[in-house]
Amino acid sequence: MSNTVKHFLDIDRFDGATLRAMIEQGLSFKNGKTNGTPLKGKTLVMIFEKPSTRTRVSFEVGIQQLGGHAVVLGERDSQLGRGESIADTARVLSRYGDAIMIRTDDPEKLIELSAHASIPVINGLTNDSHPCQIMADIMTFEEHRGSIAGKTVAWSGDGNNMVTSWVHAAVRFGFTLRLACPDTFRPAQALLDWAAGEKGDIVLTADPAEAVKDADLVTTDVWVSMGDEDADKRHQKLSPYQINDRMMGLAKPDAVFMHCLPAHREEEVTASVIDGPQSVVWDEAENRLHAQKAILAWCLS
Ligand code: CP
Ligand code: NVA
Fold first, then answer.
1. What is the pLDDT of residues 279-295, one digit of tens each?
2. Domains of the chain
3. 19, 68, 146, 186: which could form a disulfide with 63 (CB 3.0–4.6 Å)?
4. What is the pLDDT of residue 226?
5. Angle between helices 281-300 and 54-65 in degrees, nearest 10
6. 162 lines ligand 2 (CB under 6 A)
7. DSSP H stretches of helix in 182-255
8. Is residue 132 in contact with ligand 2, taking CB distance under 6 Å?
9. pTM for this structure?
10. Three-state DSSP class for 72?
11. In angstroms, what is the span from residue 197 Cα to ligand 1's centroid?
């Protein structure tokens, strides 16, 4: 299909200036500096092959606030579950809608969808990445602490889909990313090689204290992501990576704590941290709405 279709697939596919413009647009929507209904009459079709609270609601509310509306297809709502191909689904949805958001397991499905859609496709999470979340996270950090360029972000936990998008963002937005992951749950070597080739400042360690020391932002995610089946092993390997008061005490005194949510208190993060004064998780969740409005506006402009 036309390569002029403006998909939002992953952060590494964009240059820093385009991403920066999306963040500014998101802030402009949030602060009421951009008003009106630029997406009047536009339809976003959302496909969910995994559960969602934030992504589903923020996209639906977001497109509505911009003048459009959403059609939501859950796992049992479409013929995808009965074996209709992704390619045929892409062709059909392109005749009805103006953009497609998909949350799915295999990242190849996202690529297949974008290859056969003649309308923009947005990545609403795969097993490999979660770019919409990280756009909201960058926006949230910058609202609280100013430009993220040159700052240090520390991740302690599973080297999962969130980590991929953090690595992409560290390269494109120019910040240091320190990842503390157990050997069993490290991010893919190909991802780290890509970042090194792009001259990204990424440090991988097995020691959470080394990662969080003097960090400006401390973040983590669940130990068991949607679709993971080795919960017992994950709990065992990841328990030393919990973010607690001791860990936050190693970061800069004004460090913020973020979590994409949903969270499991007393597992990857203690209640004292996520519900404490350094946590900005509710602003982060709200910013999904504003960042996604910017992504939708970019895709459909
Ligand atoms: N953070 C996030 O994507 O949340 P949901 O799974 O609820 O959409
Ligand atoms: N890593 C988590 C993120 C949820 C928003 C998962 O994939 O389940």
1. 999 999 999 999 999 99
2. 11-130+288-300 (3.40.50.1370), 133-284 (3.40.50.1370)
3. 68
4. 98
5. 50
6. yes
7. 189-197, 208-212, 231-238, 245-250
8. no
9. 0.97
10. strand
11. 31
